[in-house]
């Protein structure tokens, strides 16, 4: 291979004028984490609501939940981001569209909301599966105790369901982190984007992508360990994850 | 609301969108699904083979690929494939590789990691009695796998494999990041050429939505059918 390796490239100043190439990658990493956290909050919030909707006895509620999930699951994330970024401002009344276009950091907000909504459909499926996996007797017992539907969900079903779906939620959170990289297409310079611009400025393709790879692996390891600790704290003794 | 939109741009570019763009997307989806399944099955067999080292290597590969974003993997292979070509052919310079081959290699390598997890679950779901009975009949390891275990594992996992293929179909749109003309790339090209972003992106969204919906409806039907037979 006649590729010219140069691992010292990370300590050379980047032409963007904000420090070295390493600084550039690290600020990309920070942006990846920030975007992922905002997206995850949105995904958890909407995903829980929609997931619960799908388990309610009301036909209309579960129909709405079904349509929501199908809508966000059957379009590529990239297309969804384009819809939010390019199409939505044109469809809104002119004043709103103008306001949307002028938001500072638009790529950040668009990616966070777009990835958040995209992931919320997947979270909704997990929440539904979690609630569905509980014995039917739980709901009957809650009703027999005189709890309203809302109370049964709040005090009986959801505390158990969320503990059961902790492992799949962990991988959905990891997917959220990975999916923020699609923001590169609307100009978000997160970790993958930073590696890409480093490659364009310095021509050190493989050093740039190796660094990004290592950083993604580190983030993964940290998240997996943190979630495992959380799972252990929340485990119900004698129940699936409780050992 | 749509008063000053020009939806005729879609009709005018239909040929380009579907004959060039969608053909590329479909070919890429089909071939990388097939390649991913073959390599994925090999990786799954490596992990279950009982050879510690082989299993370790396969496991590391799967974990590595699964912790990276697809966009980064696309970049990796986009720049790496010419060097792999040089290494394979013994040429003196990195080999020029076309857009299709480059993205095909990327998606096969990427999907193999995901398909291998599905096939591993499928192989493990086969009861121990099956390979034991095959061995009692005098079948070798490869015959056991070929005639007894893999066909059942494949059949049991068919709905999951097809669902993963739908995800793959949507994911191929990400080749956009290296300017490869798939369906979305074609739509985007027309959109920028004619200044019709709204119309083209809405149309692309509808097309992806309809195809994915129809496909997942088909998978659901199949799943019911399989569940019924069992």
Quick structural overview:
Chain A is mostly helical and 243 residues long. Chain A contains ten helices and no strands. In chain A, helix 3 packs across helix 5.
Map the helices and strands.
The complex is a heterodimer of chains A (243) and B (230).
Chain A: H1 21-55, H2 59-73, H3 77-91, H4 94-102, H5 106-132, H6 136-144, H7 149-164, H8 166-179, H9 191-202, H10 205-234
Chain B: H1 8-47, H2 52-66, H3 70-89, H4 99-124, H5 129-136, H6 141-171, H7 183-194, H8 197-229
Helix pairs in contact in B: 1-2, 1-4, 1-6, 1-7, 2-4, 3-4, 4-6, 5-6, 6-8, 7-8
Question: Would you kindly provide a written description of the structure presented here, covering whatever features stand out?
Answer:
The complex is a heterodimer of chains A (243) and B (230). By secondary structure, chain A is mainly α. Chain A has a single domain, classed as MetI-like (MetI-like fold), CATH 1.10.3720.10. Chain A is 75% helix and 0% strand. Chain A has ten helices and no strands. The radius of gyration of chain A is 22 Å and the shape is flat. By secondary structure, chain B is mostly helical. Chain B has a single domain, classed as Orthogonal Bundle (MetI-like fold). Helix content of chain B is 80%, strand content 0%. Chain B is built from eight helices and no strands. Chains A and B meet through helix 2, helix 3, helix 8, helix 9 and helix 10 of A and helix 3 and helix 8 of B.
Can you tell me the CATH class of chain A?
Answer: Mainly Alpha
From the spread of the alpha carbons, the general shape of chain B counts as flat
The count of strands of chain B amounts to 0
Average pLDDT score of chain A: 92
Structural class of chain B: mainly alpha
Number of domains of chain B: 1
Rg of chain B computed from alpha carbons, rounded to a whole number of angstroms: 21 Å
Q: Give the ordered list of helices and strands of chain B.
A: HHHHHHHH
**Proportion of strand residues of chain A:** under 5%
| Low-pLDDT windows of residues of chain B | none
Q: Evaluate the radius of gyration of chain A.
A: 22 Å
Low-confidence stretches of chain A: none
Helix content of chain A: over 70%
Tell me, what's the shape of chain A?
Answer: flat
CATH class of chain B: Mainly Alpha
CATH topology of chain B: MetI-like fold
Strand content of chain B: under 5%
What proportion of the residues of chain B is helical, as a percent range?
over 70%
- Main pleated-sheet profile of chain B: none
> Of all protein chain pairs, which has the greatest interface, and how many residues does each chain bring to it?
A-B, 40 and 35 residues
* N-C termini distance of chain A: 51 Å
